[in-house]
Every structure is written in structure tokens, then in C-alpha cells.
Amino acid sequence: MSNDKIIISPSILSADFTELGRDVRAVEDAGADWIHVDVMDGHFVPNISIGVPVVKSLKKTAKVPLDVHLMIENPEKYIGAFAKAGADIITFHYEAAKDNVDGIIDLIRSFDLKVGISIKPKTNQDVLIPYLNKVNMVLVMTVEPGFGGQEFMGYCAQKIPYIRAKAPESLIVQVDGGINDKTAKICKGLGANSLVAGSYIYGSDDIKSAIESLR
Ligand code: DX5
Ligand code: ZN
User: Fold this and answer.
1) Which one of 64, 86, 88, 124 counts the least CB within 10 Å of its CB?
2) Which residues sit with Cβ closer than 5 angstroms to ligand 2, an ion?
3) Residues 160-171 pLDDT 10s
4) Rounded-to-integer distance, Cα 162 and Cα 75, Å
């Protein structure tokens, strides 16, 4: 897989929320392909972040697709609101979908959006097999979801080749958590073609070089 096909999705969880428009423009100008929006509800994960009104504001200013990562319980209750607010890709967690994975996939599709499904570190990749032909993207978490700035868990990335081998070629395999220039290389080598990075990009003095180093 050639590196120019790698989709870089900076996570605004590490941006300055008082300067969100500026921080979105900064990564767009530096070549970001998508903007990763981490939505946390304080139930599915032990942290609360941002929600629908912020996505609505982002939509007015962002030039690239909004990649919305729902770390919330009962995602089916909120998908319509995020779709209307301007999400372009909606990723939900397998663990939050209970026995309604197909229903949630269909719901996201009904808004004509790209569908992503994510698994936490301790979830086995086998659970994804029935859905690999139905979604556009699998998001492999390489940290426990909830916080930026955590250390990359290498064993999670080992799920990627298994998923790749069983998925259609068009499937996007995204990794999220602890991604920097070194861990990006590992993930790309294993078959990932989309990288989320928050603290590495926003913590860098030179955002453009940081994004280029991930590619
Ligand atoms: C974690 C979030 C990530 C987070 C990544 O729950 O899903 O998107 O912002 O942050 P870094 O890149 O700092 O690990
Ligand atoms: Zn995320």
C-alpha cells in the first residue's frame, strides 16, 4: 500500500478548544485528510469531551471530512443528531452496540455517511468478521479509549493483518491511540491506511513536519 494513500486524521482532543477554528485550519493547511472528533459520554469511557453543537460549528469551518468517533453508550440515540450536525464518517464501538450492530450500520448508512466500527484493546478482532463487508472502516484502538496522550499498546496493532486478510481491499483500517512517527510506521507495516494522532500532531512545534512524518 503506497504511503500517499494514508489518511491522516488529527484528533482535535489535543487542540486548544478556545482556538478550535485556528487549530483545525492549522492541520488542514499542513495536509490533514480528515478531522478526528472524539465524542465521550462519561459512561462508555471515563471522560467527557464534546458533542453535537461542536460538530455543527466545525462543519461551518472545516474543509475536510469530519471523522466522528463515538465513544458513547446507546449510539443509536445520537447518530441522527451527529449526521445532521455534519459528520461525514461515523464510527461507533462494537462494545456499545450490544446486539444491534447491523441496525446501527444501517442507521448510519441511511444518512448516506461512511460507517466505521471500532474495537477496544481487549475485544477480539473475530467479532468484526460478520461486518467487514458492511462497513467502510474498522478503527483499531491502540489505547484504552478515553484520553489523549497515552502510550501505544503494540499487541492491539497485531489485530490489523488478520482484519486485512479477511476484509475487502477497499476497507479502511484506522488506528487510534499513541500514534507518532515510530508507531505509525509499525501500523502501516501491518496494513493500516488511516492514522489518528492527537498529542503527537498538536504537541509538535511543526505540525506540517509531524503530519509528513506520519505519512
Ligand atoms: C482516545 C481517542 C483518541 C485520542 C488520541 O480515546 O479516541 O482519538 O485523541 O490521542 P493521542 O494521539 O494523543 O493518543
Ligand atoms: Zn478517537
Assistant:
1) 124
2) 38, 69, 176
3) 999 999 999 999
4) 27
CA distance 172 to 59: 23
- Per-residue cell: 44: 462508555
C-beta of residue 133 within 8 angstroms of C-beta of residue 169: no
36 lines ligand 1 (CB under 6 A): yes
The domain 7-214 belongs to what CATH superfamily?
A: Aldolase class I (3.20.20.70)
- The identity of residue 104, as a single letter, is I
Question: Structure pTM?
Answer: 0.97
Amino acid type, 41: D
Q: Can you tell me the distance from the alpha carbon of 196 to that of 107, in angstroms, rounded to the nearest whole number?
A: 24
Give residue 101's identity as a one-letter amino acid code: V
> In a 10 Å sphere around its CB, with 0-12 CB exposed, 13-18 middle and 19+ buried, how is residue 136 labelled?
middle
Please state the rounded mean pLDDT for residues 12-40: 98
Q: What amino acid is encoded at 13 in this protein?
A: L
99: cell is 446486539
Asked if 173 and 193 count as a contact pair (C-beta separation under 8 A), the reply is yes
Q: How far is the CA of 196 from the centre of ligand 2 (A)?
A: 7
Positive or negative: CA dihedral 96, 17, 10, 213 = negative
CB 134 within 8 A of CB 111: no
